[in-house]
Fold this sequence. Notes:
Radius of gyration: 23 Å
CATH architecture of the largest domain: 3-Layer(bba) Sandwich
Distance between the termini: 59 Å
CATH superfamily of the largest domain: FAD/NAD(P)-binding domain
CATH class of the largest domain: Alpha Beta
Shape: globular
Bound molecules: flavin-adenine dinucleotide
Oligomer: single chain
Number of strands: 25
Number of domains: 3
Amino acid sequence: MSDLHVRYLLVGGGVAASHAAQEIRRLDANGELLLVGQENTRPYHRPPLSKEFLLGRRGHEELFTHPAEWFVEHRVRLRTSQRVSRLDIHRHSATLANGEEISFDHLLIATGGGAKRLSVPGAALPNLLYLRTLEDAERLGHAMDKARREGRPHPDKAGRGRAVVIGAGVLGLEIAGTLSTAGLHVDLAVAGEHPWDHLAGETTGKALARFLGWRGVAVHLNSRAVRLEGDGRVQRVILACGGAVESLECDFAVAAVGLEVHKEILRGTPIIAEKAILVDQRCRTNIGHIYAAGDCAAIFDPLFGKHRLLDHWDSAALTGRIAGANMAGMEASFDAVSHFESRVADLELNVWGEGKIVDRRIVRGSAGAPSPRFVEFGVAADGRVAQIITVGPPTEADILPEFVRRRLRIDGNEERLKDPAVPLRELLGPDG
Ligand SMILES: Cc1cc2nc3c(=O)[nH]c(=O)nc-3n(C[C@H](O)[C@H](O)[C@H](O)COP(=O)(O)OP(=O)(O)OC[C@H]3O[C@@H](n4cnc5c(N)ncnc54)[C@H](O)[C@@H]3O)c2cc1C
């Protein structure tokens, strides 16, 4: 006998779970709904953590997805600081870490992920920081303040506080841009030939490196952090750059080296997962009444005919809504062009579609200026647009995703695509 039975159980207190709750309540005002999250706050938005929150431009209260009263008014029961440790799919039940058993009709797994840990000597030193949660952001904020007050002098100008950012993916660049805007001297360790190398082409990656360079960030290309050194705290990050070794002085280091999907609760269940939990277009796992959404799920994207882990805000909110709708008896499906937005200092970046199948890239606009503004079209081997990246405020932003949605073939149109004087609508054809 379980301790509690609910119609809807949502596990994970992030944006995917909160959007699912909202959608369920839109469709079913009465079904018992319980949201269990292991953090000690109600659901909040993570994107500001690496930007406005760290810069003190957005406060704690402005991060939450819903006011506290919303949960009461909509009868969404919220259990924070509670972890679901086990699932029993035959009994339709979940066990919390405190031993309580909750049975459900429909379950959503929206457990997101955590920051992947760096595994090099010295990685256990206390001022190697990560950024995933509000607590992490507060810790990083304290380290920034302390470094600015009493940290190492800047190498080349007045000011105090030196940080090394390890990792040049989306999050690493955001953090480097923010720390530099906050007045710290930043060294950025880029493992590949340019930032965003898993995601974008050389033009975008090099433009990002130059942009950060203009902002005073020291960008170290082809450089891996191999060791952290210091007397009880990180004081130096040792980089290997080809055969050479470089030592970077710092007050603290931040590692942004990827996402580790939270899928421990699948242990002992037949729910299928690879890097993330595999779900169909309706966010269903292979077990009928169990759904997954957000960063812990790889959704089947019909546009590319494969499962994709879309670990960004738009997709977490959207798949949360899709799962919620289906749990409440609707037939909602993922048919969007995946998109995310990022910001490095004041540079806006947008990405639509899938970079992994891109074979060649076509650039429209100027990548050279201190304020770059251009579009990178990623074309797959079949000659169709697979990905679009905008650097700087996008023009024609309403049309750009259409190129991916239609998987437009651009053969023969390359020169016109490169020319910003040619309206994109003309290239879309008659239905544009
Ligand atoms: C600093 C930062 C900046 C970002 N900036 C951007 C951006 O600019 N643009 C963008 O598109 N995306 C951005 N993202 C990514 C975006 O925030 C995520 O894609 C989104 O938060 C994912 O939401 P989610 O609900 O799937 O997972 P999460 O937000 O990870 O939430 C999952 C929650 O479930 C909890 N949980 C895990 N296991 C259990 C369990 N067993 N029991 C109970 N609870 C559990 C977790 O602790 C967590 O609180 C950023 C992420 C970070 C960290």
